[in-house]
Amino acid sequence: MARALDPELLAEARRIQVRADRMVTDVMAGGYSSVFRGSGIEFDEVREFAEGDELRSVDWNVTARVGRPFVKKFVEERELTVLFLLDVSASMRFGTSPPGRARRTAGTTAALFVGCVAFAAARNNDKAGLITFSDRIERYVPAKKGRNHVLRLIREALVPPMVGARTGLEQALDYAGRVQRRRAIVFVVSDFLGADVARKLRLLSQRHDVIAVRIRDPFAAGLDRVAGDVGALPNAGLLHLADPETGQTFLVDTASRSVRERVQANWRLERQRLLEACRSTGVDLLDVPTEGSVAEPLVRFFRMRELRGAKR
Q1: pLDDT (tens digit, 9 = 90+) per residue, 269-294?
Q2: How far apart are CA 82 and CA 307, in angstroms?
Q3: What CA–CA distance (Å, rounded) separates 42 from 141?
Q4: I want to staple 62 with a disulfide (CB 3.0 to 4.6 A). Which of 1, 12, 70, 110 is the partner?
């Protein structure tokens, strides 16, 4: 049953559609195609062994059954599938306001990212699908082609959680592996706060090209950039803070040097844990801030993948 969308939400979805389409046209043209087109192969058929065939291509099961050597034939994938695994838990509603700039939450930034990549996929006649999750699977939109389908993905990305508030990234990765049987490009879009996902990332990356997309608020990005600077957390006196996923409230004394040091240490530990998980599983990590252009980090990512491919 179709859900009625709030008019403001629909207007925001259309704004994101326009911005994402413009980014693809102005900045990302060719990047997606050069990195992902023909990135995989799929099984086509078996045929009898011929002179010049490699031994490693022999299908030993068929060979033993018919008594003559047969080889597996593969073809380059002509159509790719892009799957977005999108965190819509309560923490994705967070967003600070840089001076002189409009506030953009992690969730809105994630929807803009989905729109950019999905439009790039649509231009290459590829399919795009979406799984949204909190502490449960919220919605699964099977992959399809076309610009109208991209707009639907953007709308679904903007819809707040229907049931859950917390984050269940492990079970979402497991679900993606079960519903997406054929090889796909899987963008896991989340803030990755408190996530221990190395084992599930490894399992998913064995079959798919997995990219972890971490959405970062400029406040957190500032902590990440400044090494050893305890002033990265502003001295704002006593602050009442709330955990959006549990509802638990805290009174934090930001005037305390030890508090600021502890916050920065925890942030670095969180970042290092995710970096190590990605490195150990062969998953690329892409940071997308909630301020500025979403296309710029994407373009840098495409260039990195192109250069890495050229060196192989």
Answers
A1: 888 888 999 999 999 999 998 888 88
A2: 22
A3: 24
A4: 70
Contact by Cβ (8 Å): 135, 244: no
CATH class assigned to 7-36+77-311: alpha beta
List of residues 6+ apart from 311 with CB closer than 8 A: none
The 10 Å CB-count burial string (b at 16+, else e) for 86-102 is bbbbbbbbbbeebeeee
* Structure confidence by residue, pLDDT tens digits, 116-126: 899 888 888 89
Collect all residues with Cβ–Cβ distance below 8 Å to 140 and sequence separation of at least 6. 129, 130, 131, 175, 179
- Report d(CA 264, CA 113) in Å as an integer: 27
- Both tokens assigned to 2: 């179709």
CA distance linking residue 134 with residue 214, whole number of Å: 16
Start and end residues for every CATH 3.40.50.410 domain found in the chain = 7-36+77-311
